[in-house]
Amino acid sequence: MSYVEVPGAKVPIRMWTDPAAVEDGAMQQLRNVATLPWIKGLAVMPDVHYGKGATVGSVIAMHGAVCPAAVGVDIGCGMSAVRTSLTANDLPGDLSRLRSKIERAIPVGRGMHDDPVDPGRVYGFPSTGFDDFWSRFDDVADPVKFRRERAGKQMGTLGSGNHFIEFCLDETGSVWLMLHSGSRNIGKELAEYHIGEAQKLPHNQGLVDRDLAVFVSDTPQMAAYRNDLFWAQEYAKYNRAIMMGLFQEVVRREFRKAKVAFDPVISCHHNYVAEERYQGMDLLVTRKGAIRAASGDFGIIPGSMGTGSYIVKGLGNEKSFNSASHGAGRRMSRNAAKRRFSTRDLEEQTRGVECRKDSGVVDEIPGAYKPIERVIDQQRDLVEVVAKLKQVICVKG
């Protein structure tokens, strides 16, 4: 489908989904965003659903301003994936051992490494930039500086919620490795600190929703936020790179006889801010639950822990600010999913996947998410499908 345009106060709301299918609370959030004085455009992805301040699945383009709550508290959250030389024929009948080895190599949930991971020992990790990145920690917001040791030990860890590590097969039988995570606790604390700082500023006192408080250009508050925002986005990128390297090393050891080779890693943020130019204007584009899909950009759009995912290539549609959805999107809240579904439902909906099937992950059951095939179909003018993946192992926190 192409987009549907809904009137908004300052800009039209371009929606790559049926507006009637969007929950009332999310539609109100979109209308609220469209009232912001600095807004120049708003694009809504087919995975849209209610969030904090701004919906998940929205792309907000502003001139001279940025809204920290519209980035989300997991700054830089995103996906990484890589195709391997393995095929389905290389896999054992029982995948539980491989799942256990992945979980031992990469801490999940609230877990962290005993000591910071030495990137020099991580398979495929970029050889430059990491020391400079950590040297800039001294410039982040003072109230968060005491978290340095924890941030070091959490680098290369998964977290919980909707984060995951998966071992997948595409439709040709090739094995892919895929993971989803962000900036861990340090990103969350930086986000919450700056959201609080923005809400105190005089120009934000008349907004329809205090969670839409913004920083404006050429102010010390904006400079401080941009510094911390871009640092946290780098943290998330390195976090995924270390995890992917650890994951690749597990696979190399487990399939030593096959001498596993890897294609270049595909990686994309889906909670972040980028400086981009549209219609002759320099804009700050916030993607909250959306990926960049400029022409030729590779991206990853996951479904749920039982339905598979898509590798896509962007078509460069400027009406969406060169963006696409970040996943299937939730169709019910976590609490609603826990009330609706049981562990028996989870077992049924994840049949054939080596994964947790206990009450701790019922809120991540496939039935709590929108159908990924429909979400992909609704954005055929934004991306083309390169590969369809189906997980055979899914590690959750």
TrEMBL record:
Gene3D superfamilies named among the record's database cross-references: tRNA-splicing ligase RtcB
Transmembrane spans: none
Catalytic residues as annotated in Swiss-Prot or TrEMBL: 326 (gmp-histidine intermediate)
One BP annotation, GO: DNA repair
Documented EC number(s): 6.5.1.8
UniProt xrefs under SUPFAM superfamilies: Hypothetical protein PH1602
Cofactor note (record): Binds 2 manganese ions per subunit.
InterPro entries noted in UniProt: RtcB (IPR001233), RtcB-like (IPR052915), RtcB-like_sf (IPR036025)
Binding site for Mn(2+) 1: 74, 163
Binding site for GMP: 162-166, 270-271, 302-305, 309, 326-329, 396
Record keyword Signal present: no
Positions contributing to Mn(2+) 2 binding: 180, 270
Catalytic activity reported: a 3'-end 3'-phospho-ribonucleotide-RNA + a 5'-end dephospho-ribonucleoside-RNA + GTP = a ribonucleotidyl-ribonucleotide-RNA + GMP + diphosphate
Molecular function GO labels: DNA ligase activity; GTP binding; manganese ion binding; RNA ligase (GTP) activity
Highest taxon listed in the record's lineage: Bacteria
Cofactor(s) needed by this chain: Mn(2+)
Keywords linked to the UniProt accession: GTP-binding, Ligase, Manganese, Metal-binding, Nucleotide-binding, RNA repair
Residue runs in coiled coils: none
PANTHER family found in the cross-reference section: RNA-SPLICING LIGASE RTCB
Protein known as: 3'-phosphate/5'-hydroxy nucleic acid ligase
Organism from which the protein derives: Streptomyces wuyuanensis
